[in-house]
Amino acid sequence: MTTYEIIAPETLSADINLPASKSISNRALIIHALSGGQLPKNLSDCDDTRAVINALRDMPETIDVGAAGTAMRFMTAYLAVTDGEHTITGSERMRHRPIGVLVDALRMLGATIDYVADEGYPPLHIQGHSLPGGKLEIPGNVSSQFISALLLIGPVMQLGLSLHLTGEIVSRPYIDLTIHVMHGFGAEVDWTSPDTIEVKPKPYNNAPYLIENDWSASSYWYELASLYPISEAHVALRGLEDSSRQGDSVVKYIFSLLGVKTTFDEPHTGKPTTVRLTRHLDSVAQLSYDFLNCPDLAQTIVATCCGLGVTFHFTGLASLRIKETDRLVALQKELRKLGYFLQILNNEELLWDGATCEPSMEPIDTYEDHRMAMALAPLAVKFPRLRINNPEVVTKSYSDFWKDLRKASFTINKI
Fold first, then answer.
1. Which of 36, 336, 344, 408 sits at 20 to 30 Å (Cα–Cα) from 43?
2. Which of 214, 296, 369, 400 is catalytic?
3. Beta-sheet pairing, 134-139 with 124-128
4. Can you tell me the distance from the alpha carbon of 21 to that of 237, in angstroms, rounded to the nearest whole number?
């Protein structure tokens, strides 16, 4: 097992070219496979995107996507509408992540899918063929990746797709991001009411497409900036768009409450925008927030608030229990090692009322979860020589994370 010891510099000065968005990359890759033409530009260099690239390039009889959730969901839909017979599987954790809602929906649209082992979970055996499509009703509170997977194949189904979402709709920004990327390839898809999306049976075109950089990855630099004293943090992040459809772009608002100011350089034609972060104000004393639409930011904000001593009550976290790990339990356990006593409420809320305990300073475990490593690593600013086990998990979304920290003058020792 690899363990890193992290030593933070006294001040933070960094100029970082963030990774491309894996969320956009994986959507664009599926569309590219359905439309042909040239590959999208600036694809994400991470495990999740490589899983999609390898699967689409090789199309083996058995496709193993490892721990890549978007690859499992998007490839399941893609294989259902693509001629051929395949089995799709993943890591042990992936084989325990539910996929029954997506499989049921695809079957109702005409797909031929069978479970290889446990009902409702991967692996799946898929006999791909043209699907009729048509009208479909699905709960709005399921993973947005299920909904996005269905939307992505809508244009190639014979009747298109009329998708009615019932009940509360979670992670709506991720659905909107899917629609936005589909528009970039000429799809006719739009909300026709607050709970219904219509996809016309019009094939994608093969237009060139440029992937923007990842707002989710920016969150760890926002966290770092917030943990330094006022005027001692200056970070430049390249390749982010102010008008981004990425749901996690809300990070700039959340961190404005935690003392970080965001400014955008004037854009230059043909060049990516530079975002500048400065620590300029004190943070709020307490924070309440509903993460229903941006669950991937939760770990970062939880760790930040603990580091700043900001008490919090966070809701909308139910989906964190079925991610790479049970992120609520993982946060509770690992932050206790640093002396913070968090409470889990109603199976989907996290509360910290300021209660602390004696920190053990044991190494932080990452649970094969990239965001556990990246969200807790910045706490080395508050806890010198913080140690993190299995740090290589960051390659799932941000392969150069440790390299970029070293570039920002962090000392990272392998112990």
1. 408
2. 296
3. unpaired
4. 14
